[in-house]
Task: structure prediction
Amino acid sequence: MPVQMTQSSKSHPAVQAGADEPPVPGQKPVPFRRRRNPAERDLEGTLSSALLAADKELNHVLREVDEISKALKGNRPDAQDLRVAVHPAVWCAVRHALVERELRHLALTDDLTCLYNRRGFFAAATQQLKMARRSQVATLLLCCDVDNLKLINDRFGHSEGDLALVRTADALEDVFRDSDVLARLGGDEFAVVAMGVSPQDEPALLQRLQKSLAKMCQDDARYELSLSVGTAWFEPKREASLGELLEEADRAMYEHKRAKHRKSW
Result:
């Protein structure tokens, strides 16, 4: 089922952020969903942002720092609290934990779309399938790619091609839940693992994806952006690995692409 949209130049923060500056030929858009830089001078804001992470080591360090801060805010902090608070090792530990978390994030994240990259997808999707097996629930694996991306790059430039990829990522994030695993596997190919989605949900889900794409892009009719989509289903009673499901969804995706090509002739 083709998913089409008309590309617009206004909807994404990555475009708006540089709206006042002339585009640099061949330069990729700056990734947009930047997290707060750990090197910010606003230490309190940085630590508060970091507390949202599930990193146990980091949270432990931050809890210790919070206890020190509470002690220092008291009427009469004792000498021991003051010595601990100003000790370089305390802030070195915080900085080290933040840097380690940032490096782990970068190793698993696609720098253009801020979705998982291929490595991050396999790590997160494997855990998702383990949970689905334990919970005995059906799970969707969806693969899709952007049709004619090379043509878009050749005709309008690589920045426009990058924008097409960003818009595709936005549409996937709009349709799927925060708990689902979304990734750009590389090039123009994306993948999603959504636990608790049954085959009966597929038509409605693809329709929502189509509507989301169309809603984002209404003002630029230079070309249409379409997705070729393939799906595979994990059933609790069926023994299938992540690799096997990916192969099945990939075959379905390319069959969809070939069918569209045959129809266009």
